[in-house]
Amino acid sequence: MPDARGAPGAAAAPDASGAPGAVAAPDASGVVGATGAVPVVGGAWPVGARPWVVRGWEPPATGYGAGHRGVDLAAPPGSPVRAAAAGRVSFAGRVAGRGVVSVELSRTGDPPLRTTYEPVRATVTEGDRVATGEPLGTLEPAARFHCPTACLHWGLLRRHTYLDPLTLLPPHLLGGTPPRLLPVTA
């Protein structure tokens, strides 16, 4: 069953191996990101104000097993794709015929976290610094085999370990209730 961030059995921290496709187990608290491995540094959805999550994070049982190493967010082709968090563009180009933008996130440890966005027609180039919410490009039309509707595939990695990108966002952006201060009574 998905957790509050739409992540069924989501991984909070990279495993010790750092092997390609490695996926860590949830921490003892059961809270995604509670270990501090994924700091809440995001401040914007990559597309829309609160897009429909077409397909959520589904970590594979093994490093090379079946799963979904990111989330798919519904958006029409031509939609602006924005940086979920501030960082430096580490790649902007085509991979397997699709436009891909990758951003190495600022202040996220060593090695730093890296977000990926596809399919995107990039308006940024490698080395560009981007602020949270800054446009990276526009969503390209993609083959329907990946999503039943047009979507952005948004990924998150630390080195070779895939993580749930929704863990970057604060609860109020995910539909949770923001904290409220109660009056002090005597």
Automatic annotation (TrEMBL):
Family annotation (PANTHER family): L-ALA--D-GLU ENDOPEPTIDASE (PTHR21666:SF289), PEPTIDASE-RELATED (PTHR21666)
Record key words, sorted: Signal
Residue ranges occupied by any M23ase beta-sheet core domain in the UniProt entry: 67-165
Recorded superkingdom: Bacteria
Pfam families: Peptidase_M23
Annotated GO MF terms: metalloendopeptidase activity
Region (Disordered): 1-24
InterPro entries found in the cross-reference section: Cell_wall_metabolism_enzyme, Dup_hybrid_motif, M23ase_b-sheet_dom
Protein name: Peptidoglycan DD-metalloendopeptidase family protein
